[in-house]
Amino acid sequence: MTLRHGFTTGTAASAAAKAAATHLLTGRALERVEVPLPIGERMSIAILESRIDGDAVMAAVVKDAGDDPDVTHRAVIRARVQRGAGSGVTLRGGSGVGVVTRPGLPVAIGMPAINPVPREQITKSVTEALDDALAPGASESIGLEVEIRVDRGEELARKTFNPRLGIIGGISILGTRGTVKPFSNAAYQATIRQCLDVMQACGVTTPCLTTGGRSERFLRQARPQTPETACVQVADFFSYSMREVGRRGFGSVLWGVFFGKLVKQAQGHRYTHARSAELDLGILASWCADCGFDQHVCREVAGANTAMQALELLSPMPRSKALFTLLTNKAADAARTFCGRDLRVDYMLFDFTGQILHQTREAA
Fold it and tell me: What pLDDT sits at residue 359?
């Protein structure tokens, strides 16, 4: 089966802006426009609408994430274009586009969250419309003001990392390729990098890495002094997130995890998703033996169906403390290896109710 590629919010905004500029300059409302992509290719995009809006033109595009739908899939991205003073293209954000309020992002504080690559892509697309509208050799100088808007952008942003990144009031206009590759990890990895950049810029000394929303919630409940900006949900990107922590020179890191992910990290898996990292309960059973568990318990662990089943067996037993210590030590060693630096790695291990089963050095 061939998976269908989509396009980014940056490409959607570029197409809407080019359609609006063309309509404003020529009087023609287009059904499709072709826009340049950051990767050097071009893409034809359908226009939802293009209409006169006072002394401007408003055009809209429905963002299509292809077969890798995300929060912005089917979002309506708009561009309102009007003539401005001087020459060239002036770009600003309107309703539904977030505003940056914290350092560490590629956009300055107070500016709309339109990242540099899509900003350049939008400008190029509108410049193409200008060039096409002017007669060859014409000396006329035209300035255009472009405002990007997103329908329900503030509502959509609540489902993204924007609030914790300090981007308020809407979504970000993103995209370094212009296209969305189905089931690509690139977007998630970019979010991890951005969160770590913001932490660094805000003076966070110990990033708190969790594998999802529930483990983050339990970590912050256990450590109420931990601000949201100090946390990032890294999913299964164990190696990648530790490498990025190392690149930024953090001296310590705190992981909030559940048992199954901890065992996989202790096994040294770079990526801990079930489809690529098998949970080896035979290895776990051998570690149980190293910690002094009875042979019959080790056999039950080796034959368990899931990590949860193994944990239900092991956690009430006195030797579970030794096992949890062994697992966190091994996971911390793997984390430091992936980081490429010797840094402090602490763990908080939770059960599925949020109870702390084990924490290293009291997870200071």
Answer: 96
Handedness of CA 309, 312, 318, 324 (dihedral sign): positive
Query: How many residues does the structure list for the chain?
Result: 364
Q: Which residues pair with 359 in a beta bridge?
A: 348
* Residue-wise pLDDT tens digits, 281-335: 999 999 999 999 999 999 999 998 889 899 999 999 999 999 999 999 999 999 9
Residues in Cβ contact with 291 at an 8 Å cutoff, skipping those fewer than 6 apart:
319, 322, 323, 326
User: How far is residue 131's CA from residue 138's CA, in Å, rounded to a whole number?
Assistant: 10
CATH no. of 6-180 = 3.30.2110.10
* The amino acid at 7: F
- Residue 72's alpha-carbon distances to 35, 227, 356, in angstroms, are 20, 27, 36
Report the alpha-carbon distance of residue 41 to residue 11 in Å, rounded.
12
SS3 of 233-299 = ECCCCHHHHHHHHHHCCCCEEEEEEEHHHHHHHHCCCCCCCCCCCCCCHHHHHHHHHHCCCCHHHHH
Residue 139: per-residue pLDDT: 45
What is the per-residue pLDDT for 279?
85
Query: b/e per residue, 320-350, with b = 16+ CB within 10 A?
Result: bebbbeebbebbbebbbebbeeebebbbbbb
CA–CA distance, 152 with 109 (Å, rounded to integer): 23
Q: Are 261 and 211 in contact (CB under 8 A)?
A: yes
259-266 vs 307-314: helix axis angle to the nearest 10? Answer: 100
What local confidence, expressed as pLDDT, does residue 342 receive?
Answer: 93
Which of these, 258, 238, 327, 251, lies nearest to 291 by C-alpha position? 327
59 beta partners: 50, 79
What pLDDT sits at residue 7? Answer: 95
Upper half-sphere CA count for residue 96 (Cβ side, 13 Å): 18
Q: DSSP state, 181?
A: -
List pLDDT tens digits, range 50-76: 999 999 999 999 999 887 668 999 999
Domain boundaries, the chain: 6-180, 186-363
Q: Which residues of the chain have pLDDT under 50?
A: 1, 139
pTM: 0.77
